Inverse folding.
């Protein structure tokens, strides 16, 4: 379906509204120029982090850690929040049946691909778990030609299992990737 230019402009305006409001607020406080832009971006990010914290019922600190890592690595924050909600319900000390631990449910053996010295205990620290989990997710997405659906499925079931299923001509029918992508509400590509 084609989106008419006017609708697209309206959608863009709505998306930029929090930034514009934050900039106007900063300027009303006497902050001008580049400083007002930085203040506006910071205020808009704080508002977004607060929205994620409220939506998922988590602390501002945890939401900030997840958001900052997502932005730093170029991952849509809504996707990362959705993945973590699905994997661990935001429990940094979660332990899976297959030995996966932490927010993003990473196996220590997988985490050691990216950091040889990491321990299972360290993976329970949100900063460590999210940093290594994003690296692993992006590796899977890249392996599957930047296809987020296949990357998420590989993250969930393992690359080898997914490749076997695809070789048999089957796309796994679990709704893992669909449920995570649903958190994006059109923001994820």
């Amino acid at each position: 379906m084609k989106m008419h230019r006017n609708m697209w402009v309206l959608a863009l305006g709505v998306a930029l509204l929090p930034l514009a409001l934050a900039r106007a607020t900063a300027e009303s406080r006497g902050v001008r120029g580049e400083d007002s832009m930085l203040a506006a971006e910071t205020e808009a990010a704080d508002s977004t982090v607060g929205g994620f914290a409220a939506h998922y019922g988590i602390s501002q600190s945890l939401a900030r850690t997840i958001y900052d890592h997502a932005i730093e690595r170029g991952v849509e924050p809504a996707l990362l929040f959705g993945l973590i909600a699905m994997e661990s319900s935001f429990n940094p000390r979660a332990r899976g049946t297959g030995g996966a631990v932490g927010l993003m449910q990473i196996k220590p053996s997988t985490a050691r691909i990216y950091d040889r010295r990491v321990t299972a205990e360290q993976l329970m620290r949100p900063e460590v778990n999210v940093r290594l989990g994003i690296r692993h997710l992006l590796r899977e997405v890249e392996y599957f030609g930047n296809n987020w659906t296949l990357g998420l499925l590989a993250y969930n079931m393992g690359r080898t299992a997914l490749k076997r299923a695809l070789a048999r001509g089957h796309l796994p029918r679990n709704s893992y990737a669909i449920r995570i992508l649903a958190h994006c509400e059109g923001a994820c590509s």
Summary: The chain is about 65% helix and 0% strand.
